[in-house]
Amino acid sequence: MSMLAGVAHGRESDEASRHDNKPAEENAPIIVLGRGLPLPPATAAYGSEIITREQLSREPSGRIENALGSLAGFQQFRRADSRSANPSAQGVTLRALGGNASSRALLLLDGVPQADPFFGYIPFTALAPERMGVVRITRGGGVGAFGAGAVAGTVELASADRSELPLYEGAAFWGSRDAQELNVSFSPNVGTGFVSVSGRWERGDGFHTTPADLRVAASVPARYRDWSTSIRGVVPVGDNGEIQARIALFRDNRTLRFAGADNSSEGQDASIRYISHGPWQVDALAYVQARNFTSKTISATSYRLVLDQRDTPATGIGGKLEIRPPVGDAHMLRFGVDSRITSGTMLEDAINGGTGLMTATRRAFGRQVTSGFFVEDDWTLGNIILTAGARADRWTISNSSFAERNAAGVLTTDTHFPDRNGWEGSYRAGAVWNAGDVLALRAAGYTGFRLPTLNELYRGFSVGAVRTNANPNLSPERLRGAEAGFDVTPAPGMKFSATAYYNRLKGAISNVTVSNNVRERRNVDAIVAKGIELSAQAELGTVQLTASYAYAHSRLRASGALDGQNPSQSPHHMASAGLSWEPMMGATIGARLRYVGPQYEDDLGANRMPDALTVDGSAQWPLMRGVALVGRVENLFDERVVTRQVGNDIDLGLPRTIWLGFKITG
Question: Where do the DSSP E strands lie in 256-330?
C-alpha cells in the first residue's frame, strides 16, 4: 500500500515500519496496551483525517472542540466553544449538514458514543485533550458499530495508550479575565497492566457576549466553571487479550448573557471493553451513562426568570460485539451487533416574569432503543482494495408522554404519545487504487439514518425572544451520499488530499420559522449538500505545515419559502492553516489561522452573520528537565466573531485571550 495507508493508521505507522525491518521469524504482531483493534485496510476509501497527540497538545485554547475545528468542515451549531455556548447547542456535524443543534456526526471515545442521551450534544468539557492519543475524523455515513446516527460522519477519539503516557504530567495556566486551568495525570504500571488517573479543573470570569452598545443592567459576562476526572485501567488477559475499563465524572456550570441565566450539565460514565488480538479478533464493549442538565431562562424584555428547567436526568446504556474471523490475508471480514438504550425526563417550571410566581409545571418523558447488526469486508487485490458493508437496525420510540399542571397543581395536559418502531437498512461501499508510491485514488457511496433525539421530540426552548417548539411526530432522517477523491504523497512527510462529495439528507430535522418569533422542529423534504474538501500537510525538518479547506453548497429542499434556502448555521466556506516549529528538543512555536464564511441564523436567510478570520498561537520553552514554560493566545487580533444574530440582537464569541503557564512531565 502507499503511504496513504500509513497516514490513515496514525500512531500505528511508526511501530509497523520498525516491525517490518525485523526478520520474518520475529515478525509477530506488536501489541501496545490500551489500544483497540487495528484499522481495516480500506479505511482510506472514506477519506479519514488524523489529528495527532502532538497537535492536540499544542492547541492554543486547550479545548478539544477547537482542535477538532482545525479540520475545515467540522462545526458545532454555533461559533462558540464550551466557555460561552449553551451546552444544548454543542452538537457536531460535518459537510454543512446543519440546521439544528443535535449531533449529525457520531462521536466515540474508545468505541463508546459520547452524545448526551437526551439532547444529542457533546460534553466537550469532559473530553480533555491531554487524555487522548489520536483523533480520526471520517466524513460520510457510517455502517460499522454504532453506525446508526452517523449521517454526517464519525469522530473517533482514542485514549492515550501505555507508550504515550508519562508516569506523571501536569499543567497550570492563568489567562485573561482571571481564567485559570489546571490538569494533572498519574499513570503508573500496575502488575502487567497500567492505570491512568487524570483530572482537569478550569474557571473564568468570562467575557460579555453582548456588544457594549446593546448591554443592559442585567447583562453579565459569560462566567464558567467546570471539572472532570477519569480513571482508566488496562490489564492483559491471556496471550492476546486485554480488558480496558474506564470511569469518568464531570460537572459544568455556565452563565449566559443575563444575570441568573445559569445552566449546568453533569455526567457519570462507566465502560468496560475486551480486546483480543488473536487469530479471531474480538472487540466487546458495554457502557452506562447517567447525565443531567439544568437551565434557567431570563426574559429578554423584563430580565426576570421565566423558565426553570430544573432537572433533565437521562440514561444511556449500550454495548457491542465485533468479531473478525481469520479468512486469509486478502480479506478482513468483520461482523457484529450493537445496541443503545436511551431514556430521559424533562422537568421544568414556567414562571410569571412580572410576579415571579410559578404558573405551570411540565414533565416530559421518552425512551428510545436502537439495535442492529452489521457486516463489512475489505478485499485486497494487489494495489486495489475493495470494501462493502451493510447494517440493519430496529428502532423504537416508546413510553413517551407530556404532562402539564397549573399553579394549583391541577393537571391541564396529559398526553401519551403512541409507540413507534421500524427497520432501517444502511449500506456503504468503497474502493482505493494505489496507483503507485505517490498517488492513491478512492471512491465511496453510503446511506445512513438518524433518529430524532428526545430533546427534538419533546422539549421546546427559547433564545432571547425567539421560541422553538418541540415536535413529537418527527421521523428519522435518511442519508444518501457519494464521494470521490485522491491522495498524493510526493515525499515522506508530505500529503495532499482532495475530495468531491454529494450528500442528500432526506427528512432533515430543521428549526422551521412559523412566525416572527416562533420556530418549530420539522422534517423538511431534504438538505442537499455538495462540495469540495482539500487538505495538505508537510514536514520540512523541524517545521510542520497543515492546511484545510471545505466548500459546501448546502440547500434546503422544502415547500414554500424554505425551498432553496441555506440551512441555518451552515457556511459555504471554511478554512484553516497551521505552522509549528521545533527549534530545539522540547521547544515548540506554533500559529493557526481559521476562517469561517458568512452564515445565516435562520432558515429563511433573514439574519446573515458576517465571516470571521481568527489567528491563534502557542509556544513552549523548556526551563529544566521535565519543566516547560508555555504561552498561548487566542484570537490574537481581537476579531469580532458573531455567534448569534436575530435582527439587532447579537451575541459575540471569544475576544483576544492570553494564557501563561507551566507544564511538568516525568
Answer: 262-276, 281-298, 305-311, 314-324
Nearest to 578 by CA among 66, 157, 153: 66
φ/ψ of residue 237, rounded to 5: -130, 115
Dihedral sign for Cα 596, 601, 603, 607, please: negative
In the chain, which stretches have pLDDT less than 50? 1-10, 12-28
Question: What integer pLDDT is reported at residue 30 of this predicted model?
Answer: 55
Q: How big is the CA angle at 415 (ends 412 and 421), to the nearest 5 degrees?
A: 170
Looking at residue 149, its amino acid is: G
Q: What are phi and psi of 580, to 5 degrees?
A: -135, 135
Count of residues in the chain: 666
Cβ contact 185:198 at 8 Å? yes
H or E stretch at 13? helix 12-20
Q: Is the dihedral of CA 379, 337, 507, 82 positive or negative?
A: negative
- Separation of alpha carbons 458 and 90, rounded Å: 18
Report whether 337 contacts 371 (CB < 8 A).
yes
Phi, psi of 32 (to 5 degrees): -110, 125
- The C-alpha R_g of the chain, in whole angstroms, comes to 24
pLDDT for residue 466: 72
| CA–CA separation, 92 and 624 (whole Å) | 40
List the grid coordinates of 482: 457519494
Could you give the domains of the chain?
3-665 (2.40.170.20)
Report the candidate in 115, 75, 151 with the shortest Cα–Cα distance to residue 568. 75
Helix/strand/coil for 53: helix
Which residues pair with residue 231 across a beta bridge?
197, 247
Rounded CA-CA distance 270/134 in Å is 21
**What pLDDT does 31 receive?**
61
- DSSP per-residue string spanning 70-125: TSTT-EESSS--TTTS-GGG--EESTT--SSSS-SEEEEETTEE-S-TTT----GG
| DSSP run (H or E) holding 15 | helix 12-20
Q: Are strands 439-450 and 411-416 parallel, antiparallel or unpaired?
A: unpaired
DSSP for residue 27: -
* pLDDT the model gives residue 144: 78
CB 361 within 8 A of CB 404: yes
Q: What is the DSSP letter of 559?
A: S
What is the spatial distance between Cα 278 and Cα 290, in angstroms, rounded to a whole number? Answer: 34
| Helix and strand element counts for the chain (H, E) | 5, 40
Q: What is the DSSP letter of 6?
A: H
C-alpha cell at 262: 445559569
The answer to whether residues 184 and 170 touch, using CB atoms and an 8 Å cutoff, is yes
3-state SS of 416-476? Answer: ECCCEEEEEEEEEEEEEEECCCCEEEEEEEEEEEECCCHHHHHCCEEECCEEEECCCCCCC
On whether the CB atoms of residues 252 and 125 are closer than 8 A, the answer is: yes
CA triple 173-179-182, angle to 5 deg: 40
Strand order of the β-sheet with 461-463 is 461-463, 466-469, 518-523, 509-515
Instruction: Identify which of 646, 274, 226 has the alpha carbon closest to the alpha carbon of residue 467.
Output: 646
* Cα distance between residue 47 and residue 485, in whole Å: 8
Burial (0-12, 13-18, 19+ Cβ within 10 Å), 64: buried
| Residue among 580, 595, 509, 520 at smallest CA distance from 550 | 595
CB atoms within 10 A of CB 423: 9
How far is it, in rounded angstroms, from Cα 512 to Cα 456?
13
Measured CA to CA, the distance from residue 25 to residue 47 in angstroms comes to: 34
Which residue is associated with the grid cell 503557564? 661
